[in-house]
Specification:
The protein is of the alpha/beta class. The protein is flat. It has four helices and six strands, in the order H-E-E-E-E-H-E-E-H-H. The chain starts with 20 loop residues before the first helix and ends with a helix. Strand 2 (87-97) and strand 3 (100-105) form a beta hairpin.
Length: 178
């Protein structure tokens, strides 16, 4: 299982950045290079797992929007732009390649929502891509709202909507395309 981006930190990074732009850039590139090696190794590992390639691909697509009530952001970064609105629209999208679902959500979805999706999806191969067709902010699971964490503070969606809207919406689209 691979996690979406909403609550992830790089596996490899340099914690030695101190505000020296030139040196910090060098450290960032070193970390980027290391992550590239890890990614390349994972791609090669995955390629070796392919046992029955096929040239016959059935492609199906779906999209829908889910609307959630909003909540005000708290302790947001100075570079974040906020717009007051009573609702936030989550764009859900789905591409199915045979029995593989590539699901997309227009925000940065956290791992617990992805795990919820994996429990509920009827397919054993469901991939979740985040920040697809828009970036509405962080989208956190309902239990996270009790924690004073960055992702909750930056989420535009009020408690009790995003998790179910994402999981139910995507699972409904997958079942509708079967």
């Amino acid at each position: 299982m691979r996690a979406p981006s909403g609550d992830q930190a790089p596996r490899l990074f340099h914690a030695g950045q101190r505000g020296d732009v030139t040196r910090d850039r060098e450290l960032a590139y070193e970390a980027n290079d290391a992550q590239g090696v890890v990614l390349g190794a994972e791609v090669l590992r995955a390629l070796n797992l392919i046992t029955a390639p096929t040239s016959k691909v059935r492609i199906r697509v779906a999209a829908r929007d889910a609307v959630c009530p909003t909540k005000p952001g708290v302790s947001q970064m100075a570079t974040m732009t906020t717009v007051r609105s009573p609702t936030v629209t989550l764009h859900l999208s789905l591409i199915m390649l045979n029995e593989v679902a590539i699901a997309g959500v227009s925000g940065e979805v956290v791992t617990n929502i992805y795990r919820h999706l994996q429990r509920d999806t009827p397919l054993s191969n469901t991939i979740l891509a985040t920040i697809v067709n828009d970036r509405v902010g962080y989208l956190v699971d309902d239990a996270a709202y009790d924690k004073p964490i960055f992702e909750v503070n930056g989420s535009p969606a009020a408690r009790g909507c995003a998790e179910d809207a994402i999981v139910d919406g995507l699972v409904g689209m997958i079942k509708g395309l079967d």
